[in-house]
């Protein structure tokens, strides 16, 4: 599938394939894939990819500090990295994690949804759709190693993975908290949550904008495993072994069988969904609610 997100405004360097990235962030977390000295890291300014082709997977680290908010540039870089790995036959799996201490992702970038024009909102929303579709339907095994708090759009990204490991830290809550901002999780966010935790739990979680701490996230099935913080990556790697032992074609077709009906709902209504979003987010009351929420985030510090 061709990469279909808008790339207006992106720098040429962003589109350069496999920019070699110096490794300032390496060593802050658990060892890279393979862990050996010869690991070459690639990626883009906001996405560090640590490939281990011999083992058939790569660790994809999100590093858009301070909070890995999903800006248009960041979404595009994530998509480019995913596409690179998908098109290389050496890779069968990705472990998605964060390089920002204590934060997996603060979700969609509120600055992309506040005070901008309808053309921008449409371009941004198309990129959000694309991120979900591409991760949700990826033929690769995608495991998220969630090493920090994970809100709204960030939670959606984790829910799009095949398996979720969460670090056991009470601060690392995750969920679709859109209603707390006065906004509404679109139907495909909702469907993804329902497919993961079931209708009743999703109904309550979505209405109340619940962010589940690790024990509760495990109990409701939002994550599959909770492990001590320093073992998130190693637990994800161990889990991967089981997924990679399954014949690839059988696993991929089964994944598609399970997920295609949900993805098709959006694919059929993609333009209408963009128009809905643009109409909704442009409303004065919604813009005001987002500004108030951003202000609260800033005031928290004083
Ligand atoms: C229709 C569907 C639409 C949307 C779905 C979404 O994804 S909406 C986004 C929902 N996200 C949230 O509600 C999370 C908001 N952020 C937080 O709760 C905290 O920032 C967090 C993640 C717990 C981290 O807290 P911490 O104390 O470590 O950082 P701080 O709050 O000081 O944030 C640092 C700076 O980042 C800015 N920021 C935080 N979240 C976002 C965001 N989602 N988008 C844009 N910017 C964000 C925050 O304002 C701080 O900015 P600064 O200029 O340094 O004051």
Automatic annotation (TrEMBL):
Homotrimer. The gene is LOC111156125. Gene3D superfamilies: 2-enoyl-CoA Hydratase, Chain A, domain 1, 6.10.250.170. Key enzyme of fatty acid beta-oxidation. Able to isomerize both 3-cis (3Z) and 3-trans (3E) double bonds into the 2-trans (2E) form in a range of enoyl-CoA species, with a preference for (3Z)-enoyl-CoAs over (3E)-enoyl-CoAs. The catalytic efficiency of this enzyme is not affected by the fatty acyl chain length. This is Enoyl-CoA delta isomerase 1, mitochondrial. It catalyses: (3Z)-dodecenoyl-CoA = (2E)-dodecenoyl-CoA; (3Z)-octenoyl-CoA = (2E)-octenoyl-CoA; (3Z)-decenoyl-CoA = (2E)-decenoyl-CoA; (3Z)-hexenoyl-CoA = (2E)-hexenoyl-CoA. It is found in: Mitochondrion matrix. It is an enzyme of class 5 (isomerase). GO terms for biological process: fatty acid beta-oxidation. It comes from Enhydra lutris kenyoni. Its EC number is 5.3.3.8. Pathway: Lipid metabolism; fatty acid beta-oxidation. Pfam families: ECH_1 (PF00378). The keyword Transit peptide applies. One of its GO terms (cellular component) is mitochondrial matrix. GO terms for molecular function: delta(3)-delta(2)-enoyl-CoA isomerase activity.
């Amino acid at each position: 599938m061709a990469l279909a997100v808008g790339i207006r405004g992106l720098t040429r360097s962003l589109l350069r394939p496999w920019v070699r990235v110096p490794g300032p962030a390496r060593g802050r977390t658990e060892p890279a894939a393979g862990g050996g000295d010869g690991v070459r890291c690639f990626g883009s300014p906001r996405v560090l990819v640590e490939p281990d082709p011999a083992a058939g997977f790569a660790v994809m680290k999100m590093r858009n500090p301070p909070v890995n908010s999903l800006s248009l540039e960041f979404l595009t870089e994530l998509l480019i990295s995913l596409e690179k790995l998908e098109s290389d036959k050496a890779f069968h799996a990705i472990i998605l994690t964060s390089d920002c201490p204590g934060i997996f992702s603060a979700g969609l970038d509120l600055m992309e949804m506040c005070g901008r024009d309808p053309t921008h909102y449409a371009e941004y929303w198309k990129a959000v759709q694309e991120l979900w579709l591409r991760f949700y339907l990826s033929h690769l095994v995608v495991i998220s190693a969630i090493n920090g708090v994970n809100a709204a759009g960030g939670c959606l990204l984790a829910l799009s993975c095949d398996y979720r490991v969460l670090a056991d830290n009470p601060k690392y809550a995750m969920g679709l908290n859109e209603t707390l901002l006065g906004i509404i999780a679109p139907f495909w966010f909702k469907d993804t949550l329902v497919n993961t935790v079931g209708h009743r739990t999703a109904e309550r979680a979505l209405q109340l904008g619940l962010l589940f701490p690790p024990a509760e996230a495990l109990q409701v099935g939002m994550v599959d495993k909770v492990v001590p913080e320093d073992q998130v990556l190693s637990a994800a790697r161990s889990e991967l072994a089981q997924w990679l032992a399954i014949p690839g074609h059988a696993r991929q077709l089964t994944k598609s069988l399970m997920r295609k009906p949900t993805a098709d709902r959006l694919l059929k209504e993609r333009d209408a969904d963009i128009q809905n979003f643009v109409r909704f987010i442009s409303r004065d009351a919604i813009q005001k609610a987002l500004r108030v929420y951003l202000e609260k985030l800033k005031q928290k510090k004083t």
